[in-house]
Amino acid sequence: MWQLPSCRHPPNTVLPQKIRLNERTLIMLLSLKPAPSLQPFVLGYWFVKDWAGEYEGRPIQTAPHPGAVLSVNIGRPNATADGQLAPPVSLLGLQTSARRWRSWSETYFVMAMLSIMGMMRLFPAIGEDTANRLTELNTHIGDQAAHALSAGIDPSWSPRQIASHLDRWLIKRLEQVKSPPEFSRFKAAHESLRAGQQVLAVANSVGVSRRQLDRWFHTHIGMGPQQLRDLERLQKSIRAVQRRDGDPLAGFSDQAHQIRRWGRRLDTTPAHYSHSQLSPMARYFVASDSAAPAFYL
Fold first, then answer.
1. What is the rounded distance in angstroms from the CA atom of residue 295 to the CA atom of residue 297?
2. φ and ψ at 154, to 5 degrees?
3. Which of 7, 51, 187, 254 is the most exposed place for a label (fewest CB within 10 A)?
4. Which of 208, 37, 229, 230 is nearest to 122 (CA)?
5. What is the bridge-based pairing of β-strands 134-136 and 68-73?
């Protein structure tokens, strides 16, 4: 069975939650921190390995998520619910609805969980091409750059070695990609939105029209500021239910409003979900890092 961690371990520790047969690691869930210079942009590196196919055939669900996911397949690629295989290196933009995936035996991949500002800084101006879509990274940055990310990984490496390789690639990209001129004002606008300011007031505070602010958000993350606020509110509610900590109603006008949003985006209710058993993947990443998003359901 899947092995789950204790919250006593720090999130950057390689946990002994592994099953071995003939010296091969069969099942592994692991969260590692990126280099300090990347932490404003990358929330963590998440490793998922199911060499024996323990999770094969079971539905894997991911939650609506206000962030992007850069994934590198090291083993056999997983697939979407309709059977489409994940690309070797992919970029998943912001998700506004739950998604379903399938795993196989020999599945092994690592995900760089990107923050909103990480999405904008590392992969600017592709928000509308990636929101609610899993895309091949090379379509955005070219074959050579995408190949340098995946081809440099040796499957025999430890997770820490792979994380170091991702650090080097992402730091180099930060150096090579010019920051959008509106980056600082976008960041200030996002912080004001998260603090609860209305969209018009946010636009005024950063010196642009509401229409211009909306264009910035659509260009870089694929949705407007109000849509992002709604998505972050839903994500906060999911996190509160998963962790049994915080207020799942925070930001909603009332419980009926919360239930409607859950039903529309997750096809379930908070009450039903709170009484359901979390998936092993959700349970691991909930326990491994207090700052981790509610990505798996």
1. 7
2. -95, 125
3. 254
4. 37
5. unpaired
Q: Mean pLDDT in the chain?
A: 88
Six token digits for residue 215: 């264009």
Q: Are 11 and 289 in contact (CB under 8 A)?
A: yes
State residue 26's pLDDT score: 57
Closest CA relative to residue 189, chosen from 163, 215, 162, 167: 215
Given a contact cutoff of 8 angstroms between Cβ atoms, the answer to whether 231 and 96 are in contact is yes
How confident is the model over 65-89, as a mean pLDDT? 91
**Which pLDDT score, from 0 to 100, does residue 291 have?**
79
One-letter identity of residue 218:
H
Closest CA to 283 of 293, 271, 296: 296
Q: Is 184 exposed, middle or buried (0-12, 13-18, 19+ CB in 10 A)?
A: exposed
Q: Where are the domains of the chain?
A: 19-178+280-288
φ and ψ at 99, to 5 degrees? -125, 155
What residue type is 79 in one-letter code?
A: A
% of the chain residues with pLDDT over 70 = 91
Instruction: Look at 157 and 23; give whichever has higher pLDDT.
Output: 157
Q: Residue 139 corresponds to which amino acid? A: T
pTM, two decimals, is: 0.90
What per-residue confidence (pLDDT) applies to 95?
96
